What we know:
Layout: H1 30-61, H2 67-75, H3 98-104, E1 111-117, H4 122-133, E2 138-143, E3 161-164, H5 170-177, H6 180-183, E4 188-191, E5 196-197, H7 203-213, E6 217-222, E7 242-243, E8 274-276, H8 277-286, H9 309-312, E9 313-323, H10 340-375, H11 387-401
Parallel strand pairs: 1-2, 1-4, 2-3, 6-9
Antiparallel strand pairs: 4-8, 5-9, 6-8, 7-9
Protein name: Lysine ketoglutarate reductase trans-splicing related 1
Organism: Lithospermum erythrorhizon
Region (Disordered): 380-402
Amino acid sequence: xxxxxxxxxxxxxxxxxxxxxxxxxxxxxxxxxxxxxxxxxxxxxxxxxxxxxxxxxxxxxxxxxxxxxxxxxxxxxxxxxxxxxxxxxxxxxxxxxxxxxxxxxxxxxxxxxxxxxxxxxxxxxxxxxxxxxxxxxxxxxxxxxxxxxxxxxxxxxxxxxxxxxxxxxxxxxxxxxxxxxxxxxxxxxxxxxxxxxxxxxxxxxxxxxxxxxxxxxxxxxxxxxxxxxxxxxxxxxxxxxxxxxxxxxxxxxxxxxxxxxxxxxxxxxxxxxxxxxxxxxxxxxxxxxxxxxxxxxxxxxxxxxxxxxxxxxxxxxxxxxxxxxxxxxxxxxxxxxxxxxxxxxxxxxxxxxxxxxxxxxxxxxxxxxxxxxxxxxxxxxxxxxxxxxxxxxxxxxxxxxx
Length: 402
């Protein structure tokens, strides 16, 4: 057997070609392959660009449905065009008639009034509702005491929407029954307490001021003689039409010309807030699913102001309220009880328990905010350099120590 020569191979090399010949490419096919690749890249580009344009259009037309939500709920189950984002609280009759058709469409701007109510405040709520019905507001009542039958003697009651949830708060109701997609037709949402005097308030004039001044979040000022005033910024300034800030040198919060955050500026309280639908879309997400009292949320509402809170949040002075500070939720349940002392003791115990739970929820909310702000690396706090931030942290530490 002869030794193999260096660099030799016992088998002959064969060049297998693409066309049955050698490995050398057929130069005649190169232009064709290049054309095919170019066409495929063009198709991919056009398809991607079309999908992007469709997504942008959907985000403008259907602002409450993100692409992720649409994909999860409908892309593989429902045809795209079947989704209708328009909804409202208008009562729809089970049958058609000439009278119902005449009431079906109300021309002009649509606005919403939502109030948690109990039967003890029946007549005060009636006064409030009549003011708003004169401006063609839609009304929804949240019955926290379970008593709906006691309201039917009011003529307007049959046109209102009634929701019952025993011993639930305003924020509990709002989270579950004022979803942004449902309130979308309403330009402004009034989420008020029931113990407000409206003798000096007119909804139409109020909205004229809010629109002209570009206020996304607002509230009527409180008469100085009101009870239950917690923040000076909410007190009516007699010589002004509206105001956005307050100066105060007394109390735990010092409001100076350098104070650009709540409760000195960009702040409304939770008793009578008014939201544009854009601001409510944000505020609704701010309401916690598992917390019911909403303490601390008013300090964060400025983040939902659709712009600089010191300009987009304000208090209207010319249309103001009288806060009566009547605590009925969780209060006396039976006025005709034979044992007045036992009822009095029960009321005090319940109110103390409510305050304890509210304080605990405030701490939970603040911790959640701090944690979320720290962990979300893509979120930038527009007010992180505010001089109020350090003061608020000190105040929070002192409060927890107590």
